[in-house]
Design brief:
This protein has 226 residues and is an alpha/beta fold. Helix content is 36%, strand content 30%. The chain has a single domain (3-223), classed as Rossmann fold (3-Layer(aba) Sandwich), CATH 3.40.50.300. The strands form three sheets. The chain has a six-stranded mixed β-sheet with strand order 6-9-10-3-11-12, with helices on both faces. Helix 5 packs parallel to helix 6. The relative contact order is 0.20.
Length: 226
C-alpha cells in the first residue's frame, strides 16, 4: 500500500470533522473520494498533507511504509505527496520558472543529496511543457496572476508532471475547467501509471474519463459502508 489511514480522527478549531477513518490506497490506484459538500473530503486531504490548523486527535497516516502523522507539510511533499488544491493563490513576483526550478531542486537534493543542474531542469521542463502544450511565455509570468481557471489547472498539471510524485491528491481538478482542459487532466492522469492518484470530483463525466479503480464515500466525517 502507498497510503494507509488507520483510525484517523481530525478536528479543526475544536470541532471534530473526521471520525475513525480507515482507508488503504494501493500503489498505482486511481482512487475516487466522493461525498456531498461538507462530508469531510477536503479535511481528509488537509490531514494527509499536514496542512496547518488540522489537529489529529487519534490515528495514524502511513505513507509508503513510513508513519508521517507528525511530519511537516514540507517533508510530506518531499517524500512524494503532491497536492493539487482546488483554489491556488496568486503569488505576485514569483515566476512559474523560478517556482518550478526551486521545487525540482528541493526534490532532487532530498532524494539524492545532489544539486539539480540547469541543463537537467531545462530538459525536463521542455519535455513537460511540450507534452502539455504550455506556451513558453507562461514561464516568466507570476504564479496564477492573470491566469484563467483552466490555465491554472494546466499550470498544476505542469508541476505534477515535473515532480512526478508517488501520490497525487487532486481536489476537484475538473472545477473551473472547460471540456478540453478536463480531457487534458484525465489524459495526464492516465499517462502516469507510476503515480497513485486520490481524486475528489463530483462530475460523473470526468470520473468516467479517469476510470477510478476504487471509490471511498464520506458522509458527515465518516466512511459510508457500501
Amino acid at each position: 500500500m502507498i497510503l494507509e489511514i488507520k483510525n484517523l480522527s481530525v478536528s479543526l478549531d475544536g470541532k471534530n470533522l473526521l471520525t475513525d477513518i480507515n482507508m488503504n490506497i494501493a500503489h498505482g490506484a486511481r482512487h475516487l473520494l466522493a461525498g456531498h459538500n461538507g462530508s469531510g473530503k477536503s479535511t481528509l486531504v488537509g490531514a494527509i498533507a499536514g496542512m496547518p490548523g488540522y489537529t489529529i486527535s487519534s490515528g495514524n497516516i502511513i505513507f509508503d511504509g513510513r508513519d508521517i502523522t507528525s511530519e511537516t507539510t514540507t517533508t510530506r511533499a518531499l517524500l512524494g505527496i503532491f497536492i493539487g488544491a482546488q483554489n491556488v493563490p496568486e503569488i505576485p513576483g514569483l515566476t512559474v520558472l523560478s517556482f518550478l526550478k526551486h521545487s525540482m531542486a528541493s526534490h532532487k537534493h532530498f532524494d539524492t543529496g545532489h544539486d539539480l543542474s540547469m541543463g537537467e531542469f531545462l530538459s525536463k521542463l521542455d519535455m513537460a511543457r511540450e507534452k502539455l502544450d504550455i506556451p513558453k511565455d507562461w514561464l516568466n509570468r507570476s504564479i496564477n496572476v492573470g491566469f484563467s481557471g483552466g490555465e491554472r489547472k494546466r499550470l498544476m498539471l505542469l508541476q505534477l508532471v515535473m515532480t512526478n510524485p508517488k501520490l497525487a491528491i487532486l481536489d476537484e481538478p475538473d472545477s473551473g475547467a472547460d471540456a478540453n482542459v478536463r480531457g487534458q487532466i484525465a489524459q495526464t492522469i492516465n499517462d502516469m501509471p507510476d503515480t497513485t492518484f486520490l481524486i475528489i470530483s463530483h462530475q460523473p463525466t470526468f470520473t468516467e474519463m479517469i476510470k477510478p479503480t476504487d471509490i471511498t464515500t464520506l458522509s458527515h466525517g465518516k466512511i459510508m459502508i457500501q
